[in-house]
Design brief:
It contains nine helices and 14 strands. The chain has 333 residues and is an alpha+beta fold. The chain folds into two domains: 195 residues, Fructose-1,6-Bisphosphatase, Chain A, domain 1; 126 residues, D-Maltodextrin-Binding Protein, domain 2 (3-Layer(aba) Sandwich), CATH 3.40.190. The protein has a seven-stranded mixed beta sheet with strand order 3-4-5-6-7-8-9. A five-stranded mixed beta sheet has the order 11-10-12-14-13, sandwiched between helices. Helix 1 packs antiparallel against helix 2, helix 2 crosses helix 3 and helix 2 crosses helix 4. It is globular and about 55 Å long. Pfam families: Inositol_P. GO terms for molecular function: 3'(2'),5'-bisphosphate nucleotidase activity; metal ion binding. Keywords: Hydrolase, Magnesium, Metal-binding.
Length: 333
């Protein structure tokens, strides 16, 4: 039995449940969008996803801390009573006897902040703006052991089975990875005959033949620096523009070769959050790719909630990685 077989199974079932909740919320999203202190949106689905995933993790691995993005503090305010009621309705679809206090406890099980030798990190909805817009988003869960992601369940509830073939029935894919064992793509369909498919990054070796996968929202990364690096590499192919950690999935299954998350000129000291990258990074690495920061340094998950030792993120198919790092350095010289 693989060393992390149980963790992978629990993680997949947890994100699958969260995806059902999120899709239910999105089908009837009507004003339940709050704004956090950093001006980013948060919805019933963010809270509900964190609640059901943290419950599953606490039941299966009670000693494992969870570093998640959300907490229940805003939900407790009288002004958010309607959001709280909607959240309870959605969670009760999966856990009928739950009460508000227990839902808050499940959410706050994901509020650990410090580093542990073994812990989970969770982004209950990565790409909330895409979720609200009816576009791509991801549910990203990863197990970190000794500072390295070892298990990932990256769930993309609106992503088709292939980027250039979009039958509605194929939307909803999970990308499951265990370090050293590869990455598989697993449909979210309840069809018991659906089998996971091993995926690999592309075999592109000439950087000029590469294709970028970029953020749909330009404020998430420095597109100018990426364009300068692309020009130095001779890249002419149109980029794939998509929300969330689904970009990692696109690189992992070989539909793009390079994903850059670079500091913007107006926030050069921004530090990435671990939940924004842990699951996606492992999905790419286990599929044969390489993920570092923009200086070629491996991502360091030993600093709690932040990637404090890293600047930006570069994910590639592997063969072109060194040349991408060199192009970024030259573009900044």
């Amino acid at each position: 039995m693989p060393a992390y077989d149980r963790e992978r199974t629990v993680a997949f079932r947890a994100v699958q449940t969260a995806a059902e909740l999120c899709q239910s919320v999105r089908a009837d999203l009507d004003g339940d969008v709050m704004e956090k202190d950093d001006r980013t949106p948060v919805t019933v689905a963010d809270f509900g996803s964190q609640a059901v995933i943290c419950k599953a993790l606490r039941d299966a691995f009670p000693d494992d801390p969870v570093i998640g993005e959300e907490d229940s503090s805003a939900l407790r305010a009288d002004a958010n009573a309607d959001v709280r009621a909607h959240l309870l309705e959605e969670v009760r679809a999966h856990h009928p006897d739950v009460n508000p206090g227990l839902v808050f406890d499940w959410i706050d099980h994901g509020t650990d902040a410090g580093y542990s030798e073994r812990f989970w990190t969770l982004d209950p909805i990565d790409g909330t703006k895409g979720f609200v817009r009816g576009d791509q988003y991801a549910i990203a869960l990863a197990l970190i052991v000794d500072g390295r992601p070892q298990v990932a369940a990256l769930c993309c509830p609106h992503l088709p089975s292939a980027i250039d073939a979009d039958p509605p029935a194929s939307r909803g894919q999970a990308f499951l990875a265990v370090r050293g064992e590869g990455t598989v793509q697993q449909p979210l369909t309840p069809d018991t005959d659906a089998v996971p498919t091993p995926i690999q990054t592309s075999g592109t070796t000439d950087p000029s033949e590469s294709r970028f996968c970029e953020s749909f929202v330009s404020s998430h990364s420095s597109h100018d620096l990426a364009a300068q690096a692309g020009e130095r590499l001779g890249i002419t192919a149109d980029s794939i523009r998509i929300d969330s950690q689904a970009k990692y999935a696109i690189v992992a299954r070989g539909e793009a070769d390079i994903y850059l998350r670079l500091p913007r000129p107006d926030s050069p000291d921004y530090t990435e959050r671990i939940w924004d990258h842990a699951a996606g990074a492992l999905a790419v690495e286990a599929a044969g790719g390489t993920v570092t920061d923009m200086h070629g340094t491996p991502l360091d998950f030993t600093h709690g909630r932040l990637l404090e030792a890293n600047t930006g993120v570069v994910a590639t198919n592997g063969p072109v990685h060194d040349e991408v790092i060199e192009a970024l350095a030259a573009a900044q010289a």
